[in-house]
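Working notes for the structural subgroup meeting. M.R. asked for a predicted model of this chain before we commit to crystallization trials. I am recording the input and output together here so anyone reviewing the notebook later can reproduce the run.

Input as submitted:
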Amino acid sequence: MIKSLEGGRGIAALIVALFHLAVGAEHISLIRNGYLFVDLFFVLSGFVMCAAYGSTMKSTHDFRVFLIRRIGRLYPLLIFSTLVFVLAENVIVLLKQLAYAHGYASVLNNPAAREFAIPTATEILGTITLVHGMGVFDRLILNTPSWSISTEFYTYFLFAGLCLMLNGKARIVAFAVFSLIGFGISVWASTTIHACLQQKGCLSLTSDFGFLRCIYSFFLGAIVYQIAQRNRFNSSMLQIAGCLALFALLSLVDPFPWLAFVFPLCFALLILSVCTDQGWLAAILKRKPFQILGERSYSIYLLHMPLVLFFENIAKRVHDFLPSAAVLVAYVAVLVVISGWTFKFIEDPLRARFNRLASGTRFSSRRGLLSGANKTAD
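Returned structure, recorded in token form:
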């Protein structure tokens, strides 16, 4: 496991969680444009998948092992978090109805707030089959951030297919071609369909063209792995360049929305700079707080939206700096604690079970389980 990448993943998950709560978004570009850090996940995933499976994907048996491990990594927490999200929606409706019954009429001024959220059969089927981010729906459904899990899952199939069919330079060329295709269609969809140059939010493609967005960044990450394998760089200088580039992009993306398309390239540069676990930035990311965030990053990513449903009702009622900061701190603290529970009791043990199923070997010790999980962590 590359610890600096693990720390970076944790920071990205937290930024996406802050973006959806949106406290301070009007003042802080990092929060306001936090949706772009989903692409950091995609680039990271491409890098790590290529590192873990690029040289071992040689047969249908290898593909079966790969698929089982990917299902074990994504599926259990996705289903759990979706159930929690639906439960949270309905708890909030119930609380509002109780408040209304006690004379607080204003809490139900929105007619939609009076109705319980019952997933449709189509939404349930779309989530179970992981197609809900593949253009099947005209909107985000249920636990909305999970659209990216859907697109990444099917990008895994494309990646595995290319690895099985191609080797050497032909594979690298294919990675580059698919990344360019994803980039081109993402630019077209953002600027033409979403009119992002006028309305901002370039690259904010989710349930419609999110798959192409994922392909752009994922295969960019796979290319970065190939570059890292063949070259040696000055890690510290690259880290300075990557951080300066990220700061510049965050400073300029609001007046120049098209710069959003450059963020995956910046993330690729940062990943390349820390992938050897050397340099000043890598040293920071390897510290314990960031490693804890990294370990819990998937839980943070999928569990934050149910929390947003509760905390946004508080956040919109406070306006001064100190109360807003208190809400933000409480939100992050609760999210980190809950994600620790879900990692410990759901994500990690179920992933380990799927890993044992994939390998056909049962480990007799907890240490063995954790080792297997770490080796396949993405």
